[in-house]
């Protein structure tokens, strides 16, 4: 059950998933769907999502991958509880486990190298940059209030096994910072894809795959354009978002 005065129940085209979200507070965006499409998980691998919010990435990964187990780590109590309700709502308790905790304390929650794959749609902006969301829940999700970029990459290095993969979606203007933070924690960027609203627009997001203890060398993949010239979704965006039955 849900309270329609304080929550929404959204139906996703991907996997026919249902997702409860706060009417006011942190709500997922298209970023989560782009990241879920970008990451690669082999059958029987274990995956962890850092900063799960209402659980959208674990839900999408359950629908799109053959991961044996998916763990969602979320700091904020209300969102962690909501994520657990979403797991139960979609009858995915056999594959998804939600853990409430701080990624800065992962050594107290998990074993080192416990996961094959990690993903995260982390806070993009430094404190003092950009317009901060007025709600604490939104502010923590979008600004580095509870964790900084270095905290994220340190946690990723601890959690991912040697040779394991880590996938992120981030701001292009902070790409150099992300790459420095990754390599300083033995996570070598191996693939990058820029996301543009349309062909003439600068990149608004960047997708990064890193591998722990890998040799240097990164593939720059073809850009992803979300809209075509008529301001409707591109064919690839339709595929990712499952628009028009794609």
Walk me through the structure.
With 246 residues, this protein is an alpha/beta fold. It has helices at 30-38, 56-64, 77-89, 136-142, 149-159, 175-184, 235-241, and strands spanning 7-11, 18-22, 46-50, 69-74, 96-100, 115-120, 160-170, 187-196, 203-212, 219-220, 224-225. It has a single domain (29-245), classed as 3-Layer(aba) Sandwich (Rossmann fold), CATH 3.40.50.150. The chain is built from 7 helices and 11 strands. The strands form 2 sheets. Strands 3, 4, 5, 6, 7, 8, 9, 10 and 11 form a 9-stranded mixed sheet that branches. Strands 1-2 form a two-stranded antiparallel sheet. Helix 1 (30-38) packs parallel to helix 2 (56-64). The protein is globular, with a radius of gyration of 17 Å. Keywords: Methyltransferase, Transferase. GO terms for molecular function: methyltransferase activity.
The proportion of residues forming helix, as a percent range, comes to: 25-40%
- CATH class identity: Alpha Beta
Main structural class: alpha/beta
How does the overall form come out from the CA principal axes?
Answer: globular
